[in-house]
Amino acid sequence: MPDISQYLPFSRKPQLDDTGTTADWSAEIAATLTGIADILETLSPEEWETPSLCAGWRVRDTAGHLVWRVGTPTRELLGTGWTAVREQFPNPSVNHAVDSLSRRAAEAEPDALVASLRATAAEYAAGRVTGRVRHGITELTEVVVHGLDLAHPLGRALDVSPVALGAVAVRKALIAPTSVKAVVRRRTLVATDAGWRVGRGAVIDSTAVNIVLFLFGREGFTPTGPRSPAA
After folding, report:
1. Which residue from 63, 77, 198 is spatially nearest to 133, judged by alpha carbons?
2. Does the keyword Cytoplasm apply (predicted)?
């Protein structure tokens, strides 16, 4: 089974020569954004209103979040974020600010949201997104997880590279809440369809998507997949 740590300078791998590692996920971000846009382009008006896996957000809101969070230039992103936080004084909340800005972006017409995502994908594909923070693992995580958030309830398959899914999973396993860390300390979650694993201990076979959605605490997901209604 391939060791994805060769791609992950942030993982707990031995201290060896890191010249072959990568912190630039531009190609994977571009490909995933394109896949998201391809899905959204086919939706009916009713499907845009489908609840996503991200609690409280519709598919439309999740798409709006990606347009704002990934597609906004860094200076503007910081500016709009700070303004949104200040608007909430005396009880500021970053989470509420992100929610507000994402919903605001989601008010655009569906065609405009799709076009914005495609334009952002093109920027990443052309290598025009500069600054490590904007093409690193955090940005990849935003795109992969929220892409799955909107695709899964629609019954659509989002094509994400196995290495990108593995990178997102490993990073989350390192910083996950205690309840999730308790699982990966005692169990090895094996993505049988992607050639990677996270954790230690007895093996639990699953798919890469199920593992990622479990690690990110999506409601109803266990390490082996969605929990049945009767569970």
Report:
1. 77
2. no
